Amino acid sequence: MPAPDPASLHPEDPAPVTGETLRGDDWYGRDLTGLTYTACDFYDTDWTETTGSGARFDRCTFSGVRFNVSHLTATAFTHCEFRRCSFFDARLDQCKAVGSTFDACSFRLLKVTGGDWSFTSFPRADLRKAVLDGVRMREADLRGARLDEAEVTGTDLSGALLAGVSLTGADLRGSDLSALDAHTLDRTALAGARIDPAQAVGIAVAMGFEVA
After folding, report:
1. What would the mean pLDDT of 7-13 be, rounded to a whole number?
2. At 166, phi and psi to the nearest 5?
3. Strand partners, 41
4. Which residues pair with 146 in a beta bridge?
5. Which of 75, 164, 141 is nearest to 62 (CA)?
6. 7, 28, 77, 208: most buried by Cβ count inside 10 Å?
């Protein structure tokens, strides 16, 4: 009996793809493990229930792409553009989105755990009830974003742009809030937000109070 082909036992990752445009492709339920796309454009592609880990997308554009109920781990979307994409009930664990922008996207029930999302941009994004747990979001642009009732726990928001952000009822415990300027926020934008004692002291000091 012939010996099995070693390639069949340890298949290589798919070949990298560069500079392609994909329109209306159906990737429903696809395993994205090992995929590498660079400077590619995805238009109206269905990524519903996609899974996998270790995929890399660099300088790609996603327009009208549905990431609904997807569950991706250790996947990188670096310096990408997301326009009118849907992330309904998507789970992104230990993913990387450094330098990416999100414009007119929907994030209902989005859950992000860990990973590096520094220098991302979410202009006026509706992130109500989203979960951002242990995420690095240094210098992220969240101006005008709605994070009402969101769970933003253990998240690094140092240097983030937070002007006009709404945090009503949000859980902010354990997050770095050093970029939050309570003077510039409407009081209602912080109503019911939960913080821990250390955060309370930091905010009080920033507002000029002397904590004895």
Report:
1. 50
2. -110, 125
3. 21, 61
4. 126, 166
5. 75
6. 77
Residues 6+ apart with CB under 8 A from 9: none
For the chain, the helix, strand and coil percentages under 3-state DSSP, each to the nearest 5: 10, 30, 60
CA-CA distance, 212 to 210, in Å (whole number)? 6
| pLDDT tens column, 40-97 | 999 999 999 999 999 999 999 999 999 999 999 999 999 999 999 999 999 999 999 9
In the block, residue with structure tokens 């994909």: 22
Q: Apex CA 102: angle with CA 159 and CA 41, to 5°? A: 130
Instruction: Show the tokens assigned to 208.
Output: 């000029």
Beta bridge partners of 31: 51
Q: What is the DSSP string of 150-202?
A: -EEES-B-TT-B-TT-B-TT-B-TT-B-TT--GGGS-GGGGTT-B--HHHHHH
Closest of 121, 78, 81 to residue 97, by C-alpha: 78
pLDDT of residue 181: 81
Whether the per-residue pLDDT at 122 is higher than 80: the answer is: yes
Residue 80 CB-density burial (10 A; 0-12 exposed, 13-18 middle, 19+ buried): buried
Q: How many CB atoms lie within 10 A of CB 188?
A: 9
Q: Copy the structure tokens of residue 102.
A: 């999100």
Enter the pTM of the model.
Answer: 0.88
Rg over alpha carbons for the chain, rounded to the nearest Å, is 20
Rounded-to-integer distance, Cα 162 and Cα 181, Å: 8
Write down the residue that tokens 């300027």 correspond to: 181
